[in-house]
Amino acid sequence: MRNILFILSAFLLFACKDKDNGNSMPSSDYELSPDGLTLVKWKNENTTAVDMQADPVLSKVQVIGEKAFYIHKNIVSITLPTNLRSIEKGAFWYAKIRHITIPVGVQVIKEFAFGSSSLTSVQFSEGLISIDKGAFYDCEISSLNFPESLQAIGESAFWGNRSLISITIPKGVQNIGTESFFACSKLTTATFKGINPPKVKDPFNTLIDPIARIYVPKGRLEVYKKAEDFKPYINIISEEE
Question: How far, CA to CA in Å, does 11 sit from each of 3, 5, 21?
């Protein structure tokens, strides 16, 4: 009888451990920093999906390191941990991921973080302050819903997103870099919500696939038209209806 109880107890203990580790990824699949807070490199080239939040180790990650998923040929889905604070330069450059949700707490998406990836959609969260140079360069994103917390859109940030039709720039955005929306061949309208125009450096095409209309808040038409940075677009600026 004791032997039976011992075997049963051992079986239940093993089953519980197996259940607890059911969502764990093998530690050989990735490399972490010594403190476990930065995902340095995803090493398993055959991985197609990662749920970092469901993994007891990866859920503690606060930084996706530089080029962590660079040129990963098979990964199409990833759930980032809620503890995440930063996505570093080139983290998903040329990766095959199709959708990404940026967690609350991420303030900066660094240079070319998702550049030339297969992204078709991105969900931003409040708290994001800056989208840096080329962060979503040459992706396939069809729509953008920027958070109100956003303050800066970097140079070439969305260059070559050929499915974009319209964009709305939140009132808190203060700077938009050069060619941030160049080569977005279907982009026809941009709506600015700020009472005062942000600093812009030729973010839209003026010759090839030129944007058709820029909308600004009611009562602020002349303010935008007089702004030096908006003079190239003076003939297509209108008030919102």
Answer: 12, 10, 15
> What pTM was computed for the model?
0.88
Between CA 146 and CA 150 the distance in angstroms is 7
User: 14: helix, coil or strand?
Assistant: helix
Helices (H), the chain: 2-20, 221-226
User: Taking all residues of the chain, what is their mean pLDDT, rounded to a whole number?
Assistant: 91
Residue tagged 């390191």 (tokens): 65
For residue range 17-70, what is the model confidence (pLDDT) as tens digits? Answer: 433 445 689 999 999 999 999 999 999 999 999 999 999 999 999 999 999 999
Q: Please, are residues 109 and 88 in contact by the beta-carbon 8 Å criterion?
A: no
Give residue 16's pLDDT band: very low, low, confident or very high (50, 70, 90). Answer: very low
DSSP 140-176: --------TT--EE-TTTTTT-TT--EEEE-TT--EE
Q: What is the mean pLDDT of residues 154-183?
A: 97
- The secondary structure of residue 61, as a DSSP letter, is -
Could you give the count of Cα atoms lying within 13 Å of 78 in the half-sphere of its Cβ?
28
Print burial letters for 36-46: b (CB count within 10 Å at least 16), e (below 16): eebbbebeeee
> Does residue 238 carry a pLDDT above 90?
yes
**Whole-number pLDDT of residue 3:** 52
Q: Among candidates 130, 144, 152, which has minimal Cα distance to 189? A: 144
CA atoms of 194 and 172, how far apart (whole Å): 7
CA-closest candidate to residue 117, choices 137, 144, 143: 137
